[in-house]
Design brief:
heterodimer; A: four-stranded antiparallel sheet; B: mainly beta; 11 strands
């Protein structure tokens, strides 16, 4: 158990809909990262927050947004969903602001868009 | 364009033998490399890392080798155990890439 929790574990929805994925980092970790893993792909970095502030952006679509709240939990919002958004979405956390450090991953949320 | 490549999607090894997982990268500015292991239905877990100032790092049965001139790193597992069966991801960061760039993973199967 990494100490990072993600809810829900599974999400099935339709095209055009909007969903929110939630992540609670390990106790004491200030950085939260979101990754997308599509079929046969590696983990694609989406976005990082550090202590409530956006720190870095990767290949995140404009239809996607995220935020980190004062209690350090984070939410990833996906809107106008398309079939291609079906993927595993992982949240990770770390103590430091630098991403080049050990990141602890949650179990992921499997999103299926029908 | 993939900056971190794991060219072998899968690898099968007999229990007790050595497993060697390979990873190539294209960005010469990368200066920190990590290996993660992932079991089905779980998130990746950190295994071992290496900084570019070193060419080897060892932790128990796991050793990572870095060849900067060839832009290549490898993970050696000796001896391999059935519990090592998982997908292994190589990741790198450095330069303008402040965040981790992951390869697509190699699925290791260790047969009893």
């Amino acid at each position: 158990d990494s100490g990072v929790t993600q809810t829900p574990k599974h999400l099935i929805t339709a095209t055009g809909q909007r969903v929110t994925l939630r992540c609670s980092p390990r106790s004491g970790d200030l950085s939260v990262y979101w990754y997308q893993q599509s079929l046969d792909q590696g983990l694609q970095f989406l976005i990082q927050y550090y202590n409530g502030e956006e720190r870095a952006k990767g290949n995140i679509l404009e239809r996607f947004s995220a935020q980190q709240f004062p209690d350090l939990h984070s939410e990833l919002n996906l809107s106008s969903l398309e079939l291609g958004d079906s993927a595993l979405y992982f949240c990770a956390s770390s103590v430091a602001v630098e991403a080049a450090t050990e990141q602890f991953f949650g179990p992921g949320t499997r999103l299926t868009v029908l | 364009d993939q900056q971190v490549k794991q060219n072998s999607p899968s690898l099968s090894v007999q229990e007790g033998r050595i497993s060697i997982l390979n990873c190539d990268y294209t960005n010469s500015m990368f200066d920190y490399f990590l290996w993660y292991k992932k079991y089905p239905a779980e998130g990746p877990t950190f295994l071992i890392s290496i900084s570019s100032i070193k060419d080897k790092n060892e932790d128990g049965r796991f050793t990572v080798f870095l060849n900067k001139s060839a832009k290549h790193l490898s993970l050696h597992i000796v001896p391999s155990q059935p519990g090592d069966s998982a997908v292994y991801f190589c990741a790198a960061s450095g330069g303008s890439q402040g965040n981790l760039i992951f390869g697509k993973g190699t699925k290791l199967s260790v047969k009893p």
